[in-house]
Design a protein that fits this description.
Blueprint (H helix, E strand, L loop, with lengths): L1 E6 L2 E2 L21 E2 L2 H17 L2 E8 L4 H9 L4 E6 L7 H19 L4 E5 L10 H9 L3 E5 L1 E5 L2 E7 L5 E7 L2 E5 L11 H9 L2 E4 L33 H10 L6
Parallel strand pairs: 1-4, 1-6, 4-5, 5-12, 6-11, 7-11
Antiparallel strand pairs: 2-3, 8-9, 9-10
Helix pairs in contact: 2-5, 3-4
Length: 257
């Protein structure tokens, strides 16, 4: 089984998010970088597929030279090789990103054979883009299923499960080769070990300069949603607050009246 997993370098969003003065990007001066939780699960699933069935795995990202760090993190948990589509600072929208990935996949498959499974995270953690994986599948004329939280190989194909909008599960059976976007919860990603990081540091990262072309899409600006205010009510201090606490617990249904 040959597996390719595509990831995106995104700001670590655990802290407070602010925008640059022109509203065109997230201010990353005080933020680290990572990949989204969905993509962490995609990397883990690629490693598990190869561990269980044999074959090879590769990780690909489009971004600046610093995105090599995220590729080496993926290799540290067991991905075999890495491909960096190194950009020159220009922002690639979803259409241009998908086109660059498709061009690279075609070249890679011509030299190394076809990928049986191409994995994506369901959406990007920073911009929420979800269409890249779908565009790649359409361009390659391969079946695609999104939002997956269960993946098994069977009879030369995949059996995929995702949560249904009305509850329960939807199950899909698709032939290989295929494109799948996965969600957090598919598995429990492992952490890179020190020996894994040392091995990853010694591996080569294949660098490719992707073609960029304008397709007419223009980003006007980013906008942060309004923050939700919170209120705190002090009921009292010490023993004098006991009766008020009991009244409040009864009000919210924790205690029976």
């Amino acid at each position: 089984m040959k597996v390719l997993v595509c990831v995106k370098r995104v700001p670590a969003t655990g802290g407070r998010i602010s925008l640059t003065a022109d509203g065109q990007a997230i201010d990353t001066r005080y933020l680290g970088f990572t990949v989204s939780p969905h993509e962490e699960c995609a990397v883990e699933e690629a490693v598990r597929i190869v561990e269980g069935q044999g074959g090879s795995s590769a990780v690909l990202t489009l971004g600046p030279a610093a995105a090599e760090e995220q590729l080496r993190d993926a290799m540290a948990v067991g991905i075999d090789r890495a491909i960096l589509l190194e950009t020159d600072g220009r922002e690639f929208d979803p259409v241009a990103t998908a086109a660059a990935i498709v061009d690279t996949i075609r070249v890679q498959e011509a030299g190394h054979g076809p990928f049986d499974v191409i994995l994506f995270g369901n959406e990007a953690a920073d911009t929420g883009d979800f269409q890249v994986g779908i565009r790649v599948a359409v361009a390659l004329d391969r079946p695609v299923v999104t939002g997956i939280k269960g993946l098994d190989s069977r009879d030369g194909g995949l059996v995929l499960r995702r949560e249904a909008p009305a509850g329960g599960w939807e199950t899909f059976e698709i032939p290989l080769p295929a494109v799948v976007s996965v969600k957090e919860g598919l598995n429990l990603p492992r952490y890179p070990s020190i020996p894994g990081r040392l091995r990853a540091r010694r591996k080569e990262v294949e660098r490719i300069e992707p073609a960029w072309s304008s397709n007419g899409l223009v980003k006007l600006r980013l906008r942060l949603p309004e923050e939700q205010g919170t209120q705190v009510e002090i009921l009292g201090r010490g023993a004098e607050a006991a009766s008020d606490v009991v009244d409040l617990l009864e009000k919210i249904g924790v205690l029976a009246s």
